[in-house]
Amino acid sequence: MPRAAARRPRFTGRAAVLVLVLAVLTVSYASSLRAYLQQRSHIGDLKSQIAEREASIDALEREKKRWEDPAYVKAQARARFGYLMPGESGFEVIGADGKPLEAQASLNDPDEVIKEVPKAWWTAAWESMELAGNPPPPAEEPVDLVDGTRSGAVEGTQQ
Question: For the whole model, what pTM was predicted?
Answer without folding.
Answer: 0.39
